[in-house]
Amino acid sequence: MSPTILRLPLLSGLVDYDANALRSDVSAGLSIAAVGLPSAIAYPAIAGLPAETGIYASIAPLVAYALFGPSRRLIVGPDAATMTVLAAVLATVLATPGVTTDRVAVAALLALIVGALCLVARLVRLGVLATFLSRPILTGFFAGISLSILIGQIKRFTGVDIEAEGLIGPVLELAREAASIHWPSLLLALGCFALLQVARALDSPIPGPVIVVLLSVLLSFFFDFEGLGIAIVGNIPEGLPTMSLPQIGDLPFDTLLVGGAAIFLVSFGAGIITARSFGALGGYQVEPNRELSGFGAANIAAGLFGTFPVTASDSRTAVNFAVGGRSQIAGLVAAATLMAVLLFLGGVLRILPIPALGAKLAATALSLIDLRALRQIWRVSRMEFVFALIAMWGPIGLGVLNGVVIAIAATLVYLLRKSMYPHGALLGRIPGRDGFYKLHREPGARPVPGFGACMIQGSLLFFNTDYVEARLLNIAKALPAGTRWLVIDASAIPQIDSTATAMLAEVCAKLKKSGIALGLAELHGDARAMLHRAGVIDKIGADMVFSGMEDALDEFENRSESPAE
């Protein structure tokens, strides 16, 4: 086999493949299909898409990721958070005047856009985007998404059409329309939901969603749920999906691109969290840039086969790990199994009751609320907890798509706030020991007479220069009388921009008027070059720029002993 062919992750992973691995992969693949089928049928409802698109999304993307994805054990497929963002994007696009394209075609086009964005991000090595939304903000955002999903299940549970939006409005409307509740649907949904919780609590060997699907289909068959007025899935097209390119037609491309970017950011962020979690469990490293190739291929396949954007699936990957899947052959077996379901079991799935799917979605939504993580964030950082609440409020109060914008904005504000106020400290010496120590941290540290020393921790950029300037001038004012030098330990200043160079020049001039010389120690190469180009080194004096704080102190002492000093 040629080296070029072996570059495909699937084939390179089969070099030492054996019969035992094949048996494990076949078992894992069948289990993945069994667990994934209920989600595949239920998740499209979040975005108003037909049930078969969820099965399509569990076939073609799996094959594509198996060929091009770097992880041997990660399984891609429909994801609740991604579907909720997709629903918001579809609503925005289809509300544009003059748009006549059907919902499925728009979803497929968005999958192609997400796939293309993944590949572009891979080319320019933007895997770092996976960490753009911080864990606290993602935790809050997913909690908000989950509440949106829960509210969206009111109709599936009760049969009552709800027009109100938000969190409280739909509940109040349901209370006003209580007489219209279809009680058989509600009882069935509550029973299925309870069964899911019991199966999860007891760690049932047969996954709860599988039990619910089998039991609800049998009950629907024997008691004619459709005749009782309980909504059912309805006809699912028989046969396999065909490859086609969705047409843009009259769609607003700018809205599609913005919506695709929102889906990409959320799906990639959620997918990498899943990939890293199971990577830690399996003892292998996850490289976000390489995962972009796999996710890109999976989404392009989804778009070409008429379905919606996908990402890493935590439930299916967990099953793969639990059963002992060894390679992406497990994913291919799962895809083949779901093809067989489409070909031979479409009539059985037709009578699957909608309330059972609503129960599955409600259970999934609750699993997205990570109370343990929220409690941990509260204990560690009250400020980060506030940002998590802001991200949670976005999808509930302003809608899911606006919630993505709120999460991004909260991230930017969070980053800006962390950088606006760089930490600083006065430095001194401990008798009998080398080095400089922070005066507020080391009780034995003492300032050096005549020699002021401080440290700034963080980049000096345009938005924090006023704060840093005020801090340096206040430090200078508080120095004991007779202090002649103030040396800044710049080892923790990775970057300096042009605004900061002007600020340092101004501080130098103000300190000179007070009889204090400004010095810099341990400058990074880029920062030193910036100060040279701005002429700040000349204003400070090249002899006041030192390789380290010890060198600065030695030079200060030498000049103090010199008659010229």
From TrEMBL:
Record field: transmembrane: 43-68, 80-99, 105-124, 136-154, 181-199, 211-236, 256-275, 329-348, 386-416
Against CDD domains, the record matches this protein to: STAS_SulP_like_sulfate_transporter
Q: Which domain of life is it from?
A: Bacteria
Q: Give the UniProt subcellular location, in the record's own words.
A: Membrane
Entry keyword set: Membrane, Transmembrane, Transmembrane helix
Name the principal localization, coarsely classed.
Answer: membrane
Please report the stretch or stretches of sequence annotated as the STAS domain: 441-556
Membrane topology qualifier: Multi-pass membrane protein
Mind telling me which InterPro entries this protein's record contains?
A: SLC26A/SulP_dom, SLC26A/SulP_fam, STAS_dom, STAS_dom_sf
Q: Does the keyword Lyase apply?
A: no
Name used for this protein in its record: High affinity sulfate transporter 1
What organism, scientifically named, is this protein from? Sinorhizobium kostiense
